[in-house]
Amino acid sequence: MPASRLSFSLQQPLPVGQGLPAADRRRAALAVMLGVCMASLDTAIANTALPAMARDLGVGEADSIWVISAYQLAMVAALLPLASLGEIIGYRRIMVAGMVLFTLASLACGLSPTLPWLVAARVAQGLGGAGIMAVNIAMLRYIYSDRLLGAGVGLNSLVVGFAFAAGPTVASLILTVASWHWLFLINVPVGLIALRLCFLSLPASAGSGHRFDGMAAVFAAGFLALLVFALNEGAHVAPPRMIAISAAGAAICLLVLLRRQAGHPAPLLAVDLLKRPMFALSAATAMCTFATQSLSFVSLPFLLQNGMGYSQVETGFLITPWPVLVAVLGPVAGRLSDRYAAGLLAGVGLAVLALGMMLLALLPESAGVFDICWRMALCGAGFGFFQSPNVRALMTSAPPARSGGASGMVGTVRLLGQSSGAALVAACFHASSTEGALMALWLGALFAGLASIASFMRLRFG
After folding, report:
1. Mean pLDDT rounded to a whole number for the chain
2. Source organism's superkingdom (predicted)?
């Protein structure tokens, strides 16, 4: 593409669904995917190094968990406000700002001499990650034409699935040759490359013209952060008073937010989109499915290690077929969603996931590696056929002007589903210390079945 034409395409707002020419589309998609990969990897990459961080920084292991929690809380709190801001000032600006902040915060994490420094840097990194994840799907609607959007969403699912699967492995490889600081410093050169590609290739989008409601953003952030905090506290058996205060604070923030934005044409919490049956059913499908994912991934290590005698390393390899199949089938399902109804593809996939969860719950104590792995692969195949079509349905059921709100909801329902699933695992173990893992798997099968029903219900609406 000539430089003058490329410069014009970056400066002038591009219509939704038109897409970029092939060469520019590949470069823009690479820019977005590098950002998505970094933000997704850093959700879990630090887990493996927590003991080493605790020893090096001279803190207890319980205190070191804030390295994980700070990132997650900052990201979930900022997702909706940044998605809304993206609708107003353009998604490209939010994406670039998010990558700049994420890269600088990664440098600060890698240079951290104390735990408070590291936690503060992780908060900044979470905010940067939220900037990337709040608008990444909305950005794809400008990079890909309507005809190719499923392929773009499938690529996004592949990257997220790969990052989720490779996180522990990447961390282990880095820790064998370097200190934990390099888990974060590795993001700096990758972030610089992604930023250059962003400046060269990401198209502009037209602003909505609405004013940004700062107070609504505060209440939206407070609602989601306090809700996730309450769920996490419940999962970690915190004092009931702390859980109740957090839950009450979340409820108050939600009520104030809904009252303040009643009648707003583009509310931060996309209640206008939830009035659309296709969008609401897609969001419900996603939340139930990610709860299933969390129920399984949190409970399976206990089942495999305590119930079947596998080691920690063996457990990691036994779980790997699930995310690998998600990464492999994500692009396939994405391309199929350009031709077939999302309700059908995801509905079938989630029925397979429910079957896989039931088969995992029925595993005998003497189950061998093959018996476990093919069941994990079945679950991963089912999950893989859900993710891309469901994201496509969420985005295309929203008006183009509300792409930011829809993109923010994609990340929000994912995080809420995962947090709910983790809390339910804790409840299962409280109910029975010996059968808790199996109860969680059966509960996951139930959620997957409900998600499948919700997905098939979408066939009534197109």
Report:
1. 85
2. Bacteria
> In the beta sheet, which residues pair with residue 13?
204
Contacts of 428 (CB under 8 A, 6+ apart): 299, 436, 437, 439, 440, 443
CATH of 19-212, one of 3.30.1330.60, 1.50.10.10, 1.20.1250.20, 2.40.10.270: 1.20.1250.20
CA atoms within 13 A on the CB side of 15: 4
Query: Cα dist. 280→119, 181, 311 in Å?
Result: 35, 42, 41
Domain range list for the chain: 19-212, 214-263, 269-462
Q: Is 60 exceeded by the pLDDT of residue 375?
A: yes
Predicted local confidence at residue 462, as pLDDT: 62
Residue 3's pLDDT band (cuts 50, 70, 90): very low
Query: Which CATH number describes the domain made up of 269-462?
Result: 1.20.1250.20
Residues in the chain: 462
Q: What is the band of 315 on the pLDDT scale with cuts at 50, 70, 90?
A: confident
Burial 273-292 (b: 16+ CB within 10 A, else e): beebebbbbbbbbbbbbbbb
Highest mean pLDDT among 126-130, 312-316, 367-371: 126-130
Integer Cα distance of 347 and 449 in angstroms: 9
For 116-170, the three-class secondary structure string (H helix, E strand, C coil) is HHHHHHHHHHHHHHHHHHHHHHHHHHHHCCHHHHHHHHHHHHHHHHHHHHHHHHH
Torsion of CA 212, 214, 219, 223, to 10 degrees: 60
In the numeric block, the tokens 């670039």 are attached to 96
Give 204's strand partners.
13
Q: Per-residue DSSP letters for 231-292? A: HHHHHTT--HHHHHHHHHHHHHHHHHHHHHTTT-SS-SS-HHHHTSHHHHHHHHHHHHHHHH
In 3D space, the residue among 188, 185, 165, 159 whose CA is nearest the CA of residue 174 turns out to be: 185
Place of tokens 């890909």: 144
pLDDT of 125 reads: 96
Residue 419 pLDDT greater than 80, yes or no = no
> Phi, psi (5° rounding) for residue 204?
-80, 155
Amino acid 267: pLDDT: 85
